[in-house]
Structures
1.
Amino acid sequence: MPYTFEKLPQLVDRREGMQERGEYVDYGVESKKVRVWHHSLTEKHLGGSDAESFADYHVNTNGWPGIGYQFVIEPKNQVEGPDGRMRARIVWCHNPGVKSYHVGNSNKMSLGICVAGDYRKDKLDEATLLSISELHAALVRDGIGDSDKSHNEMPGYSWKDCCVFDYHDAFKFKPVAKNKQPDQLPGKYTVQEGDTYWSIAGRDGAQGVKVNDLIVANPGVDPNKLQVGQVIKFGKAQNAYTRKPEEPKKPQSAYKYPLPTGVHRKGDKGAGVKQLQNALNAIYFKSGAADGIFGPKVEDAMRRFQMVYLPYEVDGVYGPNTRRKLQAVLKSKGY
Ligand SMILES: [Zn+2]
């Protein structure tokens, strides 16, 4: 009965035809207890990072009977599977029961699997991770070995930089489902096909940023020319909290910084202007001492506030929209 691993679409059978000088002994598949994971310490894109080159080295430099591993995974030779996914080629070098050379005194009980590459520098790509996880799953199903170890977890090899990738993590690798949204970073959004600021607005969760907020948070981004994969900041926009409609309105006297109603502009005086000055000062839009006079400093603070929170209404005049936004910002700061 063929092994499960033989059905892997990325497997090539090279048990015959690679460099050898003699025969390793086959003790039968039952002799294998441990699946030992290696990396080759040759950078994965280089000419020498494949099974043929390892066989040549093991035979002609080391003088061994043949290549030391049962399987070699080759990241630079990728194969497209029937599902359209790319996979790193898996070269099948010896029968599973063969006692080849890769872990000294433990050779007889150990199956050798080498992932070509130097993972002190290289990164495992998806095609390679997929081959590692599929080969591992197949070997488990086939009952070849009972456990997994890296080379340097075997007796006498703790000094080795082999393998340095996290093979347990690699076994769990699942390719991202097609059309699935990529994981979004906190406070950020990665632009998808067809997105506009209008479709992105509100995607930061409960706080619900608005289109204006996105424009403010991303000064270098042209909203009409979003690129797929571009990362947009929700950023400061989360401060621009707007009241949820179901929340009952509190009377202004309940707030630490009550806000005046109506319109206030340069030249106005009175208690309402004083409230406005206190509120702007509290959120660090400094408007000078709260003297109740809407002078140049208050107008300047008003403009600076509007530039950040109401970029379409920068006129230095306090009215209903500015009031609403100011209230929301005060609330977001805990007032
Ligand atoms: Zn090794």
Note: Residues 237-247 have pLDDT under 50 and may be disordered.
2.
Amino acid sequence: MVHNWDIVGHQQQLLGLEKDLRDGNVAHAYLFSGPKQSGKFRVARAFAGILQCPNGFCGVCKDCRAVLAGTHPDTLFVKDEGESIKIDEVRELIRKTHLTRQGKVRVILIENVERMPPEAQNSFLKTLEEPPEGTLFLLTTNHIDQVLLTVQSRVRHIPFSTVDDAVLRQYLVKEFGERPEMDEAIVMAQGRPGLAITLIREPVAFDRHKALYNQIETFLKRNDLVQKFQFVEAIEQEDGEVELFLDSLTRYLRKLVFEYMKMPRHALTGRFSLEDLVNLFEFLEKSRYLIDRNVNRKLVLENLMLLTEKN
Ligand SMILES: [Zn+2]
């Protein structure tokens, strides 16, 4: 690796980008797809740093510091703060690509481009296909199926997956030293470096994850819809709790699937079949998407809870 990306895992993706740089074959638009918090935006930001820094992302020069801080004049960030991207904002963005830039390249990073409704994505097509000279788009998405095929066909698509536990562990030990809670945090993070780092840095987040997981484990063992509805009603009112809940539920379902593989006559066989678990997984993913897009969260969560009830 020629550049200091400072990224956990994703070696294959980084090598591909390095090859593009080496061959002078950088595309005018990239789309990084994959799970939330797997490091896609971080890769996009490092790529912007490599392009803006005179020394290929040294990390300390004026350009690097500005890119990392999100204040670089030729590097525009459209971060996901939960809102969708409206057609007017896309037009404004397109207008900005025509402004005079200070350096040799303008980089526009759009986090979670699926936030654009189809009509906004459509209004973006022409610019994506032929951006003004010296403009590069770096798009990320957690939900590739929500990105129009016409958009996908105009970008260089690089899929990301989660990071191996062993790779994640190595990074965390190097960064934070051995910690007693390390292995548990790795299991909780499910291959997402962003989350693993948060869990190690913030003991409160770690404890909250753990507590929520234990609660889920307890209440999924029985039918008690009233209790489940009260539970989702309570978490729905707290910022960040819903995401945590969906995460913990995913982890619990994964654990169940894994246990079934080891032991087909599992104690819970009577409760959830493998087919039930697959259905739950699918619905969970759908719920995640709807909640990310601010669809009535309580309703989505209640429907999910209904699925966990058994006759
Ligand atoms: Zn630099």
Note: The chain has two domains: 11-159, 208-307.
